[in-house]
Amino acid sequence: MTSRLPPQPGEWIDREQPLDFQFEGVSYQGYTGDVLSSALWANGVHVLGRSFKYHRPRGIYSLANHDANALVSVGSRTNLRADCLPLEAGLQASAVNTLGSASRDYLAIMDRFSRFLPVGFYYKAFHTPRRLFPFYEKQMRKVAGLGKIDPQYREGPTGKQYDFCDLLIVGAGPAGLSAAVDAGERGLRVILVDENPHPGGSFTWQWQRNAEAQERYKKLLDRLHALENIDLRPGTIAGGVYSDYWVALFDQHRLTKLRASAVLIASGCFEQPAVFQNNDAPGIMLGSAAQRLIHRYAVQPFTRGVILGANSDAYRLASDLAANGIDVTALCDLRPEGEPSTAHAQVEATGIPVYRGFTIYQAETRRRGKQLAGVIACPLDRKGEPQPQAGLTLPCDGVAVSVGWAPDGGLLYQAGARFQYKTEVEQFVPNSLPAGLFAAGRVNGIFSWPDQCRDGLRAAREAAVYLGQPGVTELDSVTHQGPSPSHPYPIFSHPGKHNFVDFDEDIHLADFKNAHQEGYDNIELVKRFTTVGMGPSQGKLSNMNAIRILARHNRATIQATGTTTSRPFQHPVPLGHLAGRRFHPLRRTPLDAWHRQAGGQMAHAGSWLRPEYYGPADQRDQSILSEANQVRQTVGLIDVSTLGKLQITGPDAAEFLERIYTGRFHKQPTERLRYGLACDETGTVLEDGVIARLADDHFYVTATSGGSGAFYRELLRWRQIFQLNVQISNLTGQLAAINLAGPESRNVLKDLTSIDVAGDAFPYLGVRRGTVAGVAATLMRVGFVGELGYEIHVPASSALHVWEVLADAGRPFGLKPFGVETQRLLRLEKGHLIVGHDTDALTHPAEADLNWAIAKNKPFFVGSRSLEILQQRPLTRQLVGFRLADADVTPFPKECHLIFDGDTIVGRVTSIARYSTLKHPLGMAFVQPRLASPGSQLHIRTAPGKSVVGEVCSLPFYDPENLRQQ
Amino acid sequence: MSLPITRTSPILPPASPGASRDVAGASLALWFDDAEQERRAAQRLALCDLSSLPRVGYKGNAATNWLREQQVPIPAETFESKRLRDGGIVLKVASDEYFLEAGPTGLDLPPQVANFPPECFPIVREDSSIVLCGVRSKDVLQQVCGYDFSTAALDRVVYTRLAGVDAAVFPASGFPQPLVKIWSDRSYAVSLWNSLVEICAEFEGPIIGAQALFTDLA
Amino acid sequence: MKILNCPLNGPRPIQEFHYGGEFHPPLDPAELNDADWGQEVHHRHGEPGVKREWWYHTASGTWFIAERDNLKDHVIQTYLYTPECGND
Prior knowledge:
Chain A has 966 residues and is an alpha+beta fold. Chain A has 7 domains: 1-154, 2Fe-2S iron-sulphur cluster binding domain, sarcosine oxidase, alpha subunit, N-terminal domain (Ubiquitin-like (UB roll)), CATH 3.10.20; 161-270 and 406-466, FAD/NAD(P)-binding domain; 273-403, FAD/NAD(P)-binding domain (3-Layer(bba) Sandwich); 500-573, Arc Repressor Mutant, subunit A; 584-642 and 734-836, Gyrase A, domain 2, CATH 3.30.1360.120; 644-731, Aminomethyltransferase beta-barrel domains (Alpha-Beta Plaits, 2-Layer Sandwich); 874-966, Aminomethyltransferase beta-barrel domains (Elongation Factor Tu (Ef-tu), domain 3). In chain A, strands 8, 9, 10, 11, 12, 13 and 26 form a 7-stranded mixed β-sheet that branches. The model of chain B has no long low-confidence stretch (mean pLDDT 94). In chain B, 18% of the residues lie in helices and 29% in strands. Chain B has 218 residues and is α+β, with helices and mostly antiparallel strands. Chain B folds into 2 domains: 43-51 and 127-217, 2-Layer Sandwich (Gyrase A, domain 2), CATH 3.30.1360; 55-124. By secondary structure, chain C is mainly beta. Chain C has one domain (3-86): Folate-binding superfamily (Folate-binding fold, 2-Layer Sandwich), CATH 3.30.2270.10. In chain C, strand 5 (62-69) and strand 6 form a beta hairpin. The longest helix of chain C is centred in the middle third of the chain and has 9 residues, at 34-42. The interface between A and B is large, with 44 and 50 residues.
């Protein structure tokens, strides 16, 4: 059985290209250009899915991309709307949310319980007793939800893309096309998107038999295609509008982040349902859906139909159906006065009986609700209440509903438009638009195609003026003429409780009454309680009627009742498009490849990748300890290129450093290093490092690996505030730094460098410039790890060369590379804190025993005023070293474990090492000052009820006389 | 005179080059597999690593004068550029700061001197330098950058963010194909390169050597 | 995504920037008593309205000030810092 009509002018299907496909395991044939819904309907399949809650059979309703009851799965993709799923050869689709199939769903029994399942039932019934909740949840999860996701689903990253235009136009109907052509002919860069695969909007379904309209449509397309600056994007959804006209566009392949200078919304309206008993039966559909079936897909919606109408559209629809050979049994017009326009006469001429002031009271079905048998129509009294006792039975296999429209205004709301309810059109219409936002056509309350074209032109001109185009002739605004396109209350009560307001969520009219009785009198609350508008179509077919119902319950106007908040996305969007390809750039040192080849265990350290140690992952502790011993006994080599490296130059360089750091630098001799400690304005320790003076007006500064980026940024800010003649250059990535450390380091280096490395010639805390391995280098004598050592800074491109030369030269001395975890252990043994690791966002210098680094009587440095205040106050905590007797205690303490005195927290571990070259575990901790003296016992809580005792000792643990680094 | 190879790019070449040349102590790949094919790819879409080219910066109130004395052409405005003798570029990046990248000979930078005048400070510039070229480079840029390069002026640098990395992007004229140079902090080079390689591959844009860009090298 | 107009680099998407906190005209710490200084460095009020804020264009290293109505999330103007910015 096929309902395919003979070829229609402008049809979207390609009859030359038939396709085979399957639905629920049954094979059918359709055409290229069909959507799944149209192809199934053509094959006589009218049950496309089951409703969410009661599993009632549902068919085509809108055919406008929001038929949320016809959701299917195809392979790993699920919850695809059948009314916008393009048919492909070999497509295998099955309905979601069924136990069995769409046609025979065992969960349809839920419908029998519907009277016992009012809104709020689940909220109220299943939250007590609490211990049973996991059971309830498990049972409910089995029946709740729609399509099943495939956890094995894998797909490569979808590229997102940025794009730009002067004017984005959403909707390529009469208004959007007219606007695009006008703006395009002015030379503006226009992007015109439409969710459908072809432009034209209502030209392609409502005005197909209007020769004048088709002539205009063709001309608009010709002009559009002649313009290279109009980028027409069919099959594209504008999903959300964000700040400054950043619009998310979705097509089949990707998310496009479009930046438009102006946005024109010509998105149209959603035709709205009427609420009557069994208004969800397959075969009952919107008038626009019937016309889409006929004109786009050449499918007969039904053979014998009743029209429920309340506007001119219904009369045009009646003529249209009749012209396509459909037997229209009756046109029930909700309006007692009927249709004033000439459309009425045309209907009368066809002999279709028109019942004025009539509604459909209920639909009758057969085959367990799967097939429409007929309707009972009845007159309405003066209040608009149905009078079923005077009802007539009208046999039919289809109903077309054309009682009103609601604006597709989501994007306008998101962009900041305000709407006003206008009774002339019984519709919310934008009445205040922010600068750069424009609306035209049906969404603007304009319903005839010539008016829509004019309104599109008007809006395009306004946009052109906004975009600064010269010589634009502005047009007067367009207003709706004639009867209202929407009925104010197409909603009819019925004792049967199958008069659905929201098809997505199976919410019927009485549910609203219940919600109101429960006290939900605000539209946002009604939405949450009833879940109206929360289904997959997000209320496109239900929000307007819900507002009308609530307004009536509240005895308020529609304007006063208001709308719910519109949020992105306008249409369901594949999560993969949102996830897309993401960029997580990581910093690598110039020696990255070398470390990997040498077995370095690479780990994230802030934004960097660094080797923690070299060796197998299961020998972490041994490897670190062996590397540490190597440094202590002979010599080791570590890549410290992640160190912040800043060059401060200019006549005011020393003055600038004096203001940033707590120490003094004016009189710092050249070729010497000083420790630098920087605080923020609150006196919190911000950074530390060494400051090398290379010339009077040239300093070279190191900063911590983790903090240097932010520190550099702050220095730039202070430079602006201080207005000093100083240049700050961030050389962190430009230079590599290699620390050659250990008693043999001098012997490794001495033949490789132009610098005299003898102890007297290049003492501790000296800095020299020369060459290492033939490469220009800056060398610094620092002692972070507590041994004789040289920090060698070279251009990043030469780092590998220098490193390899050093490694070769060190081989006779037993040189080994060591990793950052080893360095952490070595510095901990030396009692050196790491800013940001052993200090936190409140640590001031006195707490970390850094007062020695603060110059006395300095008039100003950043944080000096705050420190002056803090120094007068008693300390509340101090950073101390501690040791543990036993490395084998379990659980072993970790960083951030708390220290207790009875039940009181008295401290926190900041660093800890289980194995050290000193043969016992050691660490650092913040503790209350009374516990800070050597010998104090620290009770470190390692697990509930378990603690380990540490003993405070003086720092440094290793080489307290600092002899080895000299 | 050829120096020993002491400098390396942070970016590993995709294969051993078919031909390369030494530039200031580094090896610059001229082509990998087929020079002619790479030349055609460069017209359409390709990536090239020029990080081996030497570069340098100068800062300070005396930098402009000193560079002028070295016969370096001085761009008029900040973010503008001039061409150096062998195809190198000088950019004015701030009122008192310049960035210079040598051409493929590596010889068109000012000489290194022992003493600079007061208030002229040389800056080590070891930025990575990636070239994205061809008529389809726009498609790749659109996937990684929120800046509209279709309206960008040629030979003017744009500081922006590319694939999550802060970068200086320079749409250059004077090449046989549309081309942008992308300078970024060298530590981000591998991340940025990998992102670009992955996206270019989707558009069938290969990695090429420098000869397709600098035809004099052939 | 918002656009912010960097005085040197022109309009750019917000992800190119780093927020640097509310702008306080620099005060002479010596002239404030302890309590007032504490207010100066610690007190941040969330009252909506037109604020002056520090913003930083990361790629070019440019600090500037944006006057922003944080009630409407509307940037009124942006400019580079000069010592005159301290004079309200």
